[in-house]
Amino acid sequence: MPFASRWLLRAIQAADRRQLRRLAALHPGLSIDPSASTNFARARIVMGPGAVLKIGANVATERTPGALTLLLGPGAHVEIGARTWLRTELEQIHISVFAGARLVLGPDSWLNGCHLSAKHALLCGRRTWIGPGCRLIDSDQHDLDAEHKERGGPITLGDHVWITSDVTVLRGVRIGSHAVIGARSLVNHDVPDHALVHGVPARVRGTVGDRSQTS
Fold first, then answer.
1. Number of domain units in the chain
2. The dihedral formed by the CA atoms of 65, 76, 78 and 17, expressed in degrees to the nearest 10
3. 14 in helix, strand or coil?
4. Mean pLDDT on 174-199
5. Are residues 97 and 79 in contact, defined by beta-carbon separation less than 8 angstroms?
6. The CATH number of the domain where 125 resides is what?
7. Which of 107, 157, 193, 214 could form a disulfide with 176 if both were Cys (CB 3.0 to 4.6 A apart)?
8. Which 8-state DSSP code applies to residue 139?
9. Going by C-beta distance under 8 Å and a sequence separation of 6 or more, which residues neighbour residue 75?
């Protein structure tokens, strides 16, 4: 890399680190590992009182202003595991964690242009892949009417789960380890380990082997 380009890159990273320090001073619950991408300085991060956001080692994202949004309500708790990639090249990533709720992304995970919403808990295991247009929503979001109130329940994903694209996962669902969810599916029931599911609503259509070595 030419000297001028190296100098410019270092200057940009230094400015981003200053911005991240300002964010940390503004939000005492914000913790970003020094090895994580300095591009988080370009993300939209909003944290209520008592909220906690932990970004682990070597977590990466692109330098696209506003393409990554992290909204944490009062007392919300978010952990993004080491070596996770929050990829915003295709679409924006929007993560909303409401007051007192919890969201965990296990290490080596990969998000690509998706929307995650937690009013209770959204817990993802190691090496979770969530593709473009996917929505994981752990509550009905609003009351249907005066008699039918909002309902919710934690969404749990095991290890090595792949949710492909344009998939909606609803409240209270558990997706087992090594499961794969086909495109444009609606998941409203639990998915067993090693299952291939797709459809509206999603149903088991086959089996999946060990995904721990896939690339």
1. 1
2. 40
3. helix
4. 98
5. no
6. 2.160.10.10
7. 193
8. B
9. 48, 49, 50, 51, 99, 100
Residue tagged 């080596």 (tokens): 108
Give the pLDDT band (50/70/90) at residue 25. confident
Nearest to 76 by CA among 22, 128, 121: 121
Q: Is residue 107 part of a domain?
A: yes
Assess whether the previous peptide bond of 201 is cis (omega < 30° from 0).
yes
Mean pLDDT, to the nearest integer, of 60-70? Answer: 93
Q: Where are the alpha helices (DSSP H) in the chain?
A: 3-26
Residue 34 lies in a domain: yes
The answer to whether residue 183 is domain-embedded is: yes
Residue 187 bridge partners (DSSP) = 169
CA atoms within 13 A on the CB side of 125: 16
Range of the domain at 75: 3-207
Number of Cβ within 10 Å of residue 148's Cβ equals 9
Task: Give the C-alpha separation, 89 to 93, whole Å.
Answer: 10
The answer to whether residue 215 sits within a structural domain is no
